[in-house]
Structure prediction request, 232 residues.
Amino acid sequence: FASSRYYMARNMIGRDVLRYCAENKLFGASLETVGDAVSTFVFISASTLAHEWKSVPDAILKDSLFFFGSKRKWLFPKTEDEVKEASLQPGRYHKFDPKLLKLILEKEKRGLVHFLKAPDLKFIHYPGPPDPNAYKRVSDWFQTLGLKPLVLDGKYWSNVEKSRLKFARSGYAVKANYEKGFHDYDEVMELVYHSNPETIQPIHSWKLYYAGKQKACLNMGLLKYGFDVIAE
Prediction:
């Protein structure tokens, strides 16, 4: 399965399904042969990842991006006040597995982690106070990684066709979410995906994503046909 034939395979069976098959080495596809043609995963929920991270392949955990809606100090509190603030959050960050926290720190050193909420944001409970600059910071982070900036154009989201939305209920909801600096999952995934549709796969729950791709791969006839046609 040559990487030069990726685009043909994507058009025939879908990029997301191809990615799943590459991860699990199905039908002759692998991450090694497909290479950069597949998406980069962006995990957007620290609390969900805390429950699922052991089920995520090591290679995915190593090179994926972590874009969390929390404050950094909720995961790594240094003072008694910070510990108290972290313990009040529904994400239960103070209960995270130390091995996961170590992984996050290692990835942070490589520039692969971003926390949405500013350290000094007066956050008490969801959704918290607005932070109009939050997604500008996220966009800048994306660009340091060689990705395209976030689509923070209100006209774009006000006019986007509903048929083009994969996660959110409307473009207006996406716009409201980023303008206020909130972190509603569906709207975050929509924004991230539209900004880099060829290179980014946003993930809220790995188990749900994995189950969806597994179901798609059960359609053996379509997949077998696709890979047979482009095979040597």
Notes: The longest strand covers residues 40-43.
